[in-house]
Amino acid sequence: MSTPDTPRFPRGLYGVTPDWADTDRLLAAIELAHAGGMTALQWRRKHGAPAGLRVQAQAVRDLCLRLGLALIINDDWRLAADLDADGAHLGLEDGSIAQARLALGAGKLIGCSCYDRPELAARRLREGADYIAFGAMYPSSVKPDAVRATLDHVRDGRRLAEGRAADGPAGEIRHPRAAVVAIGGITPGNAAPVIRAGADSIAVISALFEADDIRAAAQRCTALFDAAPP
């Protein structure tokens, strides 16, 4: 049964794919991360020919369906709709939640980058985001110039998400609530304070997929959530 504190987005490790052209390598890595407890995956590719990218995205979708793993498509809600993915992640330049919701449908997940801006998170929640993402929490090798968020931003986001659940549109009570995601430079060794601050999910790229033992890295992240109250 959902409660006011139950998030709509899966709690736990949220893997974000590296920019690998080798699809077989990527699929094998996803399986290892899932075996270690990863609860959701974001497919994120910034480089490559459109036809090749779509082939890889479809292969990832097929694997996630087999694994029962929630798949979010980064940036491209149109592709997410075409693949019947579980949702899309939107940055500032990726269109509106209203556009994405119309294309994806009411049952899909829409997440939004909120950087270090709680006021943006509040607006995205009013627009119907299923999760709000803050970061970079730590220096990021993937985005070295990214703005830096703090634990206070995560705490603020959690309060906003819980408040929005209690006071939805026109006073409607919304269960479950939107989730709070933290991203940027997160590793199994530095994630615990982020989770204690209120992150429902930690989005991890390099510390997961570039790890010597992907399954073990996922297990270490998952154990942090097992040890922390929801």
Automatic annotation (TrEMBL):
It is an enzyme of class 2 (transferase). 2-[(2R,5Z)-2-carboxy-4-methylthiazol-5(2H)-ylidene]ethyl phosphate binds at G185, I205, S206. This is Thiamine-phosphate synthase. Residues 13-208 form the Thiamine phosphate synthase/TenI domain. The lineage of its organism: Bacteria, Pseudomonadati, Pseudomonadota, Betaproteobacteria, Burkholderiales. The keyword Magnesium applies. The keyword Metal-binding applies. Coiled coil: none annotated. SUPFAM superfamilies: Thiamin phosphate synthase.
